[in-house]
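Help needed: design a sequence for this.
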């Protein structure tokens, strides 16, 4: 996962820390990689010009789900625009590279597998994306 983004991580001088408290889930590896890579890429892409990216990835079991948090200290999402971020071809910050389908695809992968994604964000402070994936009885 980090290898796919090694150049972006290096160029941004991003610091990534992990707190993984659950290590096993039945899920398609490439789909899980796609989810994490997209969230990590966005955390780097939407970084603040005032500080280096500080990204925390955590995973824990909660009520039959693996909850994966990807937290950053980036530009954040204005509360009036949060509803847009998971819609196809919609972007919050048009001055950044991208085509507006990454979070849409992430949401589709997650919801198709019976999970959900939530976001908490504060403008100029950062965001936390919470991914809920079923721990058992998944269709692959």
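Sure. Designed sequence:
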């Amino acid at each position: 996962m980090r290898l796919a983004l090694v150049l972006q991580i290096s160029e941004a001088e991003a610091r990534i820390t992990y707190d993984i408290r659950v290590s096993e889930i039945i899920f398609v590896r490439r789909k899980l990689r796609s989810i994490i890579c997209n969230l990590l890429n966005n955390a780097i892409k939407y970084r603040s010009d005032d500080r280096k990216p500080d990204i925390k990835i955590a995973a824990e079991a909660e009520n039959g789900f693996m909850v994966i948090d990807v937290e950053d200290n980036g530009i954040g999402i204005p509360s009036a625009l949060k509803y847009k971020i998971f819609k196809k071809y919609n972007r919050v910050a048009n001055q950044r590279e991208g085509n507006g389908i990454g979070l849409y695809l992430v949401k589709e992968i997650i919801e198709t597998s019976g999970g959900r994604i939530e976001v908490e964000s504060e403008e100029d402070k950062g965001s936390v994306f919470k991914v809920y994936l079923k721990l058992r009885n998944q269709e692959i």
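Residues 76 and 99 are 18 Å apart (CA to CA).
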